[in-house]
Amino acid sequence: MTDLQKIYSRLFDSFGPQNWWPADTPFEVMIGAILTQQTSWKNVEVAIQNLKDKNLLNVESLSDIPNDELEKEIRKTGFYRQKSKAVKNLVSFLMEEYQGDLDKMCTEDRQELREKLLSVKGIGHETADSILLYACIKPFFVVDAYTRRALKRLELADTDDYEQIRDFFESSLPKETTLYNEFHALWVELGKRHCKIKPLCDNCPLNDMCPHPSKTE
DNA sequence: ACCCAGGTGGCCC
DNA sequence: GGGCCACATGGG
């Protein structure tokens, strides 16, 4: 059993299945992925509900809505001017490349699709991979800040580079979307429980795996 | 009055 | 290829 498989087992046994992404449709996943950038999910839920209440959570409406009106709906998620532009950029991309058809987007070659998503302004590595994994169900491992900090803490990775860490996961684990899905969600759950600082936390399922569990800086 | 949150892009060297 | 920085609201 590899270190990563062991960690996954510990997290799964402690926190249980996370059943991500919390959304009703793949389109909702994509918009949520942008809105949750550097923002707690609680605030994103409000914004998503605002959009749903006004029947704005679809490609056509978000294509037509003026930027300042969209900003109002998503204000609570922070960085709302940037995120509003990112959402508009994404729906423009969807319309131009796939006539607004998400299924069409997801049938494209996975590497090419990733490159295209990354070329959309406002969509970076994590957002692109979140869309690929949770909206298109393609095996890309999503790496977030929690994951990087924990890997470094556990001395399993000596880099901060996103692509290297993603490659580490993808080459160490079976290429299963359900595994990638749960694993990333479990890292986030670990982070939410404040297991990100040294020592990871009280009752953290990974504490005894830390190289220096009682080191005091 | 801090610090952090399921990041990203634009600079600079 | 890194190291800063602005971006913005809400909750502890």
3D architecture notes:
- The protein is built from twelve helices and no strands.
- Helix 5 crosses helix 6.
- It has a single domain, classed as Hypothetical protein, domain 2 (Endonuclease III, domain 1, Orthogonal Bundle).
- 32% of the residues are buried.
- By secondary structure, it is mainly α.
- The chain has helices at 3-15, 26-35, 41-53, 59-64, 67-74, 80-98, 102-106, 110-119, 125-135, 145-153, 162-172, 177-192.
- The structure holds a DNA duplex (13 and 12 nucleotides).
Short description:
The chain has 217 residues and is mainly alpha-helical. Helix content is 60%, strand content 0%. The chain has a single domain, classed as Endonuclease III, domain 1, CATH 1.10.340.30.
